[in-house]
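Hey, resending since the last one bounced:
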Amino acid sequence: MVNQIPTTNPTHVSADPTNRARRGGSLVIRPAPDSALRTSPV
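The structure tokens again:
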């Protein structure tokens, strides 16, 4: 899922790096909070 987010909206990610982190983090934390925190300490 983390790979699909940036791949689906490469322009949005480049234009707004904060948006990508917010969207990716929220989506990743939902299904696996432990995995997301371990994979992305940010």
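The mean pLDDT is 54.

Sorry for the duplicate.
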